Amino acid sequence: MSDSSGKDAEEKPHYLGHRHRLREKLLKNGADSLADYELLELLLALAIPRIDVKPLAKTLIKEFGSFAGAVAADPAALGRIKGMGEGAIAGLTGDPTPSKDDVAMTKAVAAAAEKLGILLHDHVVVGRKGHKSMRSLGLLG
Asked: How far is residue 120 from each of residues 7, 50, 117, 124, 131, measured CA to CA in Å?
């Protein structure tokens, strides 16, 4: 069945499954098979999971010239880009220090888990510059 645009009514939007397809491409063909903005998309999606980060990734490439330029950029310069919060800046810079967003999200997950009788033991943030345990930092009950 077609709608007035000639498309099948059951046809899904092109963006559904986009991140999954990027991950598959990366795993199957390696990082060289992805454009710089696609690599940034995958990285940003870890810190900003619920929005389309493709425009942000393209803005970062335009601003810093390449994937390498974006991940090597000064955190203050990254912070001037609309859409780049603390969590996204730490995903890119490799700094494992938990952001305010990391702490808030972890506390929300711990509270939800507690209601189900599940104890959240820790949340470890891993980056190029090492790792940080929220429990050992005193950020998790």
From this structure: 46, 23, 10, 11, 18
